[in-house]
Amino acid sequence: MNKSEFLRAWKGFWQLADPKIWVASTVPMFVAAAYAYGKTGEFNFLWFVISLIGIYFIEIGKNAVNEFIDYKSGVDTFVTPDKRTPFSGGKKTIVEGKLTVEETILIAIITMLAACIIGLVIVIFREPLVLIVGLLGVLMSIFYSLPPFKFSYNGLGEIAVGVTFGPLIVMGMYLVMTHRVSIDVLLISLPIGFLITNVLWINQYPDYEADLKGHKYNLLVRIGKEKGVKVYAALYGAAYLSFIVIAVVTKNLLWLLSFITIPLAVQSVNIARKYYDNIPQLVKANANTVKIYQITGIMMILASLLSKTKF
C-alpha cells in the first residue's frame, strides 16, 4: 500500500468510525459511572477509561459490519441524492470509494477482536460478571446486520439498539464501577434506551425507500412512515414516564430535570407528523432528537451525581 492508498484508507477509517456518533454509547457510560459515584462516592478512573475504549471498539466494529452488509444488499447504493442527510445513508465509505469491502471487513474483525480482548482484561482483573454483559453486547452488535439473525433487516434492530445502549451498557458500566447491580440501575437505563431508539427511528425515515428496495425490513418499513410517527411520539412518552418512575423509586426529584427537553420533543413530533415524507424539512426533527438525547444525558449525569440528595 503506497502513501496515497494509506491516506485514503486512514481517512476512510475515521469516516467509518465516526467519533461524533459515539455520544450514543458515551451517554449511558457516563450516566452509569456518575450514578455509581453518587451512590458509593468512589470512581475508578482506570477501569472507566478501559471500559470506554472497549465500547468504542465495539461501536467501530458494528459500524464496519453494518457498512459492508448494507453495501452488499444495495441499501446504501439505493439512497438517492435528495434523501442523503448527515443522519442517514450509512457512513458512505464504500459508496464514496474511501474504503473497499475487504478493508471494511478487516476493520470489523480487528476492532471486534480488540473489544473482546479488552473485555477479557476487565473480566479477569476487575469483574467476572462483565463477561455476560460483554458477550451479549458483542453478539448484538455483530448480529445487528449479519446473518443468521440480521436484526436490522428483520424488524428487531430497534429493540436491539434500545437494549444494548440502555440496560446492557448502563448495567455493564455500573457493574465495573461497583461490582454489583440493582433494580434502580435498570430503571435509569430505560429512558436512555427509549431515547436512543428514537434517534435510530427518526433517522430511518430518509432511508425508507432504499431500505424497502434493499429488503431491509426494519420496523419503520414494516408499519409505514405515517404510523411510524405514532411510535416516535410513544417512545418519547415512555422515556418521560420512566423518569417519573425513577424519581418515585429513588425519592429524588432531580431526575425530572430531563423534562426541560419536553418542548423540544413536542416540536420534533409535530415536525415529523407534518413532514414525514419531506426529508429536507424533516431533518430538523432528526437534529432535535439527537439534541434531546444529549441534553437528557447531561441532566441524568447531574441527577446521578446528586443521587444522595433527596428533594
Describe this structure in words.
- By secondary structure, this protein is mainly alpha-helical.
- It has one domain.
- Helix content is 72%, strand content 0%.
- The protein has 13 helices and no strands.
- The longest helix has 29 residues.
Short account of what is shown:
The chain is an all-alpha fold. The protein has one domain. The chain has 13 helices and no strands.
Keywords for this entry:
mainly alpha; single chain; 311 residues
Q: Helix proportion of residues, in percent?
A: over 70%
- Alpha-beta content class: mainly alpha
Query: How many distinct domains?
Result: 1
Number of helices: 13
Could you tell me the strand content as a percent range? under 5%
Mean pLDDT across all amino acids: 94
The largest β sheet comes out as: none
Care to count the β-strands? 0
Give the termini distance in whole angstroms.
61 Å
User: Element order, helices and strands?
Assistant: HHHHHHHHHHHHH
Query: Rg, please?
Result: 19 Å
Low-confidence sequence ranges: none
Shape: globular
